[in-house]
Specification:
This protein is mainly α and 123 residues long. It contains four helices and three strands, in the order H-E-E-E-H-H-H. This is Nucleotide-diphospho-sugar transferase domain-containing protein. InterPro entries: DUF273 (IPR004988), Nucleotide-diphossugar_trans (IPR029044).
Length: 123
């Protein structure tokens, strides 16, 4: 599952004229064609994820990414989690996105150890 984000990196690098990419999982669909993707872009942010409304999970299956070195570095770090997955029901890239968000944006959070233990023991 992580390899799909490598494709995103390669498209960004090979196409410097692209300002943004909308990454969509194969099970995503447009349900309201009256809105443009540009409505969801916030130029203050390099990567935009969304949360599921029923469980507040950050989703790995779709995101808007700006073509910046910051975005590429973030995606690379996320991809490297493939080698750090616990030997449990780990959820591949969809669960790893939560850990990379903690690592990047709140690395000293005391709850991190508890969350990692739960992740490592999940079945």
């Amino acid at each position: 599952m992580f390899q799909r984000h490598c494709v995103t990196i390669n498209v960004l690098r090979d196409n410097p004229e692209l300002e943004y990419i909308l990454f969509l999982d194969a099970d995503m669909g447009i349900i309201n064609p009256n809105h443009l993707i540009e409505e969801y872009i916030n130029p203050k942010f390099d990567i935009l994820f969304y949360e599921r409304i029923f469980n507040f999970e950050v989703m790995a299956g779709s995101y808007i990414v700006k073509n910046t070195p910051y975005s590429i570095t973030f995606l690379k770090d996320w991809i490297e989690y493939e080698n750090k997955l616990p030997k449990s029901f780990h959820g591949t890239d969809n669960a790893a996105i939560h850990q990379i968000l903690v690592d990047w944006y709140n690395p000293n959070d005391k709850r991190d150890l508890k969350c990692r233990l739960i992740w490592e023991e999940s079945k």
